[in-house]
Amino acid sequence: IWMATRQDQPDLDHNGRLFSFSLIALVNMLIIVSLLIVASPAVAWKTFAVTWYANASTFSTRLVESVREIVGFFV
Fold first, then answer.
1. Which of 34, 29, 3, 33 has the alpha carbon at shortest distance from 17?
2. What stretch of H or E contains 42?
């Protein structure tokens, strides 16, 4: 975390800090998920992919519902 505040990081400044940190977080999550799938005898790649696809296909609908609920709370 202390490296994030340093100013002499061209990889962060070239593409922007938000994009770079988002990409770093995504890659870290993919590595952790991959290692957990490999280490777990109960979870297989196919099961994970099917579940991930099912969740991803309904993400936009759930996001819109959540935003409407939040806006309705404040309005």
1. 3
2. none
* Whole-number pLDDT of residue 75: 84
Identify residue 71 by its one-letter amino acid code. Answer: V
Q: Indicate left, alpha or beta for 16 from its phi (over 0: left) and psi (-120 to 50: alpha).
A: left
Q: Other C-beta atoms within 10 Å of 1: how many?
A: 4
Instruction: Report pLDDT digits (tens) over 25-54.
Output: 999 999 998 898 889 888 888 888 899 899
Q: What is the pTM of this model?
A: 0.54
Three-state secondary structure call for residue 7: coil
Look up residue 37 and give its two tokens.
Answer: 């799938």
Phi, psi of 19, deg, nearest 5: -60, -45
> Please, where are the H alpha helices in the chain?
10-15, 17-39, 45-57, 59-74
